[in-house]
Every structure is written in C-alpha cells, then in structure tokens.
C-alpha cells in the first residue's frame, strides 16, 4: 500500500518539481506580500498628496486673512478719496464692486489650483494593474 501511495505522489509531483499545493502556497504568499506592499505604497502616496494639499490650503487661508486686513484699509481710503468728487454712497458702491470682482477672481484662481492637483494615487493604481496582470499570468 505504501508503494502505491509513493508512486501516486511521484506521478503528481515528480522529484525536483514543486507540487500543485506548493505552487498555490507560493502564489498565495506572493499575493499576500504584493497586497501588503501595494497598501503601503498607497498609504505613502496619499499621505504625501494630503500634506501638499493641506499646506496649499494653509497658504491660501493665511494669505486671505492678511489680504483681507489690507484690503479693508485700502477700501476705506478709496471710499474717502472718491467721496471728495461724489456722494459717499456712490464712492462706496464703486469701490465695493471693484473689491468683489477682485475677490471673485482670487477665489476662482485658488479653486482651479486645487482642481489641478491629482489626489488619486496614480502610481498605486498603475502597479495594481500590473499586479492583476501578473496574477492572471500566474494562474494560467
């Protein structure tokens, strides 16, 4: 009986070649390692992008606050200066329209700068596609 079992093992797994079970075990270990590496890569890539966007938003907010204080002083000056030539209400209206136009432009510029930043982890997506192809090739 033991000779039959040994013969069956030799037919299934000739000497020097891994068995089907060993091949699947190797494939499983390789896939586990690959998935862990992909998760680590995604974490690093997303952290980097999140930090950059956070810093950009911080600059945008700080600049807006400083700009706001300066603009308020300039607005008051412009209204007072125009009030010598026209009624105060008309001077305030003209200056207000100009300030709103400038503010709208700055907000649009900040929004478009944020939209240009690609938040998706591009490198991770590319390597996941490669990994999927590799896994398909291994199963064949």
Please identify the structural class as seen in this structure: mainly alpha
Task: Specify the overall morphology.
Answer: rod-shaped
Low-confidence stretches: none
What portion of residues belong to β-strands?
Answer: under 5%
Compressed to H and E, one letter per element, the order equals HHHH
State the major sheet.
none
- What is the helical fraction, as a range of percent? over 70%
Q: What is the residue-mean pLDDT, rounded to a whole number? A: 80
- Strands, count: 0
The figure for the number of domains is 1
Q: Using only CA atoms, what is the Rg? A: 33 Å
Count of individual helical segments: 4
CA(first)-CA(last) distance: 34 Å
Characterize the structure shown:
With 140 residues, the chain is an all-alpha fold. The protein has one domain. It contains four helices and no strands. The protein has helices spanning 2-12, 20-82, 88-116, 122-139. The chain is rod-shaped. The two termini are 34 Å apart. The mean pLDDT is 80.
